[in-house]
């Protein structure tokens, strides 16, 4: 309603002489030029200052630090000198067996966990969207519930729930002949992947479900007229149309996997013997920082940030290109 | 509506498959709901068990109901540090999300409603930072703050929490969608300054969307673990996530598991209430994220 009155006010091509200098020429809705840039930077400034100090500066500091090495002259501290050592910290990072192993571990974990979680999320979204579904609202809220439990607290919960003698799952499973210890070294990666899946499937399902809801009625009508129903409808019509949502959830999941820290860290804290304190790359780096080699830790942070950026951005670009060709 | 009409004629002929598909669809949904709820149910049931009875009897059913004592224990343990943790979580989340939302709104508005040289580059840098996980910033940030000697303070957690690049991205979309250029032009014609135009016209128009940004930022800060666990050593500064993990890790040194279980259950309640009462807002945020 207000927009009609505003159009009326804005449209006359002859603004009052007194304010001519204050407004941009009629017919150009956006303000351009020097004054506009000044005003815009005024609105941007508070965010920009925090963004620069809290995100850009630390990364810059880490990059800077990664090129230096602290040398201690004496055995007990003595005199310290900081030397420029070029890429030696990077060489050390790539030569660190634990660090590389943790990167490979997390990439492998993500290669299994992300497809499982997103497949499940897509399946649930399609089921909820299908004609046969009942109690849609209840299910939606139920699947979303785990998102309300912080990852760290969920991990605390699972650290009790998965202990062999206490778990409500191991008992029944051993009755039917499946004897597993979810917190044994060989099962721990599966259990950690499972914690993330439990926590985030509903969140991803909601993004996909929301995208399904925006498919225009005419499209569905046309598909129905062509006799397209059930799984064929889902596969040939719905899934291609919610592709942007699938890309988005995949990118978020790649980023999520790269930052894996909380779940294994909680299990380490809970002294679950199967989890190594160097399980994930971030745990490695945090540990290195604690041990005092900040320069190596800086190089590792930079490497991790680059890998993540390449993976998530690469996936995004790859899909854009594929989408453009299709 | 026409979809339903179009689908109708084929329906009676395939009643049998309809019933079958209904059973399969709702069966799978029901199973998944059970899978989602069992752990939370276990958490609730366990929080009600009297100490010493946690591991006896059925894990998924009540025995020796003693919820009130457990809650009292959680709040009195270590001089009531649990309520401090909750208050800290609330402080970090409320202040961080409020400031973060306002800054995001201003930045998003600037990026959407003003054209200036370098606008797209600024936006791309902000967007690129969304593609790097926050923890990647947390580690270098810790190094920097340690160097400046400002770790282990409220500020070391609060300041980074106020930055939300994703919020800026959402706000840019929201500003473009819900603030008409004509209206801003009209306000300027009427002689309103830029600040006044923003606070009196743009901000109210964006406010439903801003609730979404606030909510997501609030949850992100409330759920954060790595940043506060890196920055804070003093228990009285820590949020509830760090505190509960600490209690869990002291299990071996005799801290009752009921403390962390009941604490976990209690810390779920505030967000649960927020989610149920603000349902339409978080759905809107998710939708905005998916329509690129």
UniProtKB/TrEMBL annotation, chain A:
Domain of life (superkingdom): Bacteria
Topological relation to the membrane, as annotated: Multi-pass membrane protein
Transmembrane regions: 38-64, 103-129, 141-163, 192-212, 241-261, 297-316
Classification via Gene3D superfamilies: MetI-like
Keyword annotations from UniProtKB, A to Z: Cell membrane, Membrane, Transmembrane, Transmembrane helix, Transport
Subcellular location: Cell membrane
Keyword Ribosomal protein: no
Domain ABC transmembrane type-1: 103-315
Amino acid composition bias (Low complexity), ranges on this chain: 1-26
Any matching Pfam family: BPD_transp_1
Stretches the record annotates as Disordered: 1-34
Recorded family membership: Belongs to the binding-protein-dependent transport system permease family.
PANTHER family xrefs: BLL4140 PROTEIN, DIACETYLCHITOBIOSE UPTAKE SYSTEM PERMEASE PROTEIN DASB
Protein name in UniProt: Carbohydrate ABC transporter permease
From TrEMBL, chain B:
InterPro entries according to UniProt: MetI-like, MetI-like_sf
Mode of membrane association: Multi-pass membrane protein
Subcellular location: Cell membrane
One Pfam family this sequence matches: BPD_transp_1
Keyword tags: Cell membrane, Membrane, Transmembrane, Transmembrane helix, Transport
Domain of life: Bacteria
UniProt keyword DNA-binding, yes or no: no
Domain ABC transmembrane type-1: 86-277
Chief place of localization: membrane
Annotated transmembrane regions: 23-44, 90-111, 123-145, 157-177, 198-222, 258-278
Family statement drawn from the similarity comment of this UniProt entry: Belongs to the binding-protein-dependent transport system permease family.
The protein's name: Carbohydrate ABC transporter permease
Organism: Nonomuraea helvata
Lineage of the species this protein comes from: Bacteria, Bacillati, Actinomycetota, Actinomycetes, Streptosporangiales
């Amino acid at each position: 309603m207000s927009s009609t009155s505003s159009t009326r006010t804005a449209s006359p091509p002859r603004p009052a002489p007194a304010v001519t200098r204050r407004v941009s020429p009629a017919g150009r809705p956006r303000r351009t030029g020097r004054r506009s840039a000044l005003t815009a930077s005024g609105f941007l400034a508070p965010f920009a200052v925090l963004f620069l100090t809290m995100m850009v500066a630390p990364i810059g500091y880490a990059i800077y630090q990664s090129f230096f090495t602290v040398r201690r002259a004496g055995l007990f501290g003595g005199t310290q000198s900081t030397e420029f050592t070029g890429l030696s910290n990077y060489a050390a990072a790539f030569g660190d067996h634990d660090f590389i192993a943790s990167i490979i571990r997390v990439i492998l974990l993500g290669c299994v966990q992300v497809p499982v979680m997103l497949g499940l999320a897509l399946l649930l979204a399609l089921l909820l969207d299908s004609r046969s579904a009942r109690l849609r609202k209840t299910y939606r809220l139920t699947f979303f519930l785990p998102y309300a439990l912080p990852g760290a607290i969920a991990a605390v919960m699972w650290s009790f729930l998965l202990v062999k003698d206490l778990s409500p799952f191991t008992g029944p499973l051993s009755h039917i002949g499946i004897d597993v210890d979810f917190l044994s070294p060989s099962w721990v990666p599966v259990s950690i992947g499972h914690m993330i899946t439990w926590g985030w499937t509903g969140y991803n399902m909601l993004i996909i479900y929301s995208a399904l809801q925006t498919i225009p009625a005419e499209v569905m009508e046309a598909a129905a007229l062509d006799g397209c129903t059930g799984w064929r409808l889902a596969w040939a019509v719905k899934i291609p149309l919610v592709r942007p949502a699938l890309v988005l959830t995949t990118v978020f999941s790649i980023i999520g996997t790269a930052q894996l820290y909380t779940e294994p860290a909680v299990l380490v804290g809970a002294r679950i013997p199967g989890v190594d304190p160097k399980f994930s790359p971030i745990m490695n780096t945090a540990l290195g920082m604690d041990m005092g080699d900040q320069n190596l830790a800086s190089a590792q942070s930079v490497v991790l940030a680059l890998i993540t950026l390449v993976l998530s951005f690469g996936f995004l670009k790859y899909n854009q290109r594929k989408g453009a060709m299709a | 509506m026409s979809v339903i009409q179009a689908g109708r004629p084929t329906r009676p002929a395939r009643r049998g498959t309809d019933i079958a598909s209904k059973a399969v669809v709702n069966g799978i949904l029901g199973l998944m709901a059970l899978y989602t709820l069992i752990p939370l149910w276990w958490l609730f049931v366990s929080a009600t068990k009297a100490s010493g009875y946690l591991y006896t009897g059925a894990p998924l059913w009540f025995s020796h109901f003693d919820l009130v004592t457990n809650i009292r224990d959680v709040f009195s343990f270590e001089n009531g540090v649990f309520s401090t943790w909750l208050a800290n979580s609330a402080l970090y989340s409320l202040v961080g999300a409020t400031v973060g939302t306002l800054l995001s709104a201003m930045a998003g508005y600037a990026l959407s409603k003003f054209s200036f040289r370098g606008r797209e580059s600024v936006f791309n840098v902000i967007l690129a930072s969304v593609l790097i996980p926050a923890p990647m910033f947390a580690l270098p940030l810790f190094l920097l703050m340690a160097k400046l000697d400002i770790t282990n303070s409220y500020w070391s957690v609060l300041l980074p929490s106020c930055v939300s690049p994703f919020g800026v991205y959402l706000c840019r979309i929201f500003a473009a969608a819900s603030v008409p250029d004509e209206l801003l032009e009209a306000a300027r014609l009427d002689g309103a300054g830029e600040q006044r135009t923003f606070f009196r016209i743009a901000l109210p128009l964006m406010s439903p969307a801003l609730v979404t940004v606030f909510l997501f930022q609030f949850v992100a800060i409330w759920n954060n673990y790595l940043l506060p666990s890196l920055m804070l050593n003093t228990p009285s500064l820590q949020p509830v996530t760090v505190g509960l993990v600490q209690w869990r890790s002291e299990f071996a040194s005799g801290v009752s598991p009921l403390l962390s279980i009941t604490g976990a259950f209690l810390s779920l309640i505030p967000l649960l209430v927020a989610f149920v009462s603000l349902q339409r807002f978080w759905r809107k945020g998710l939708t905005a994220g998916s329509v690129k």
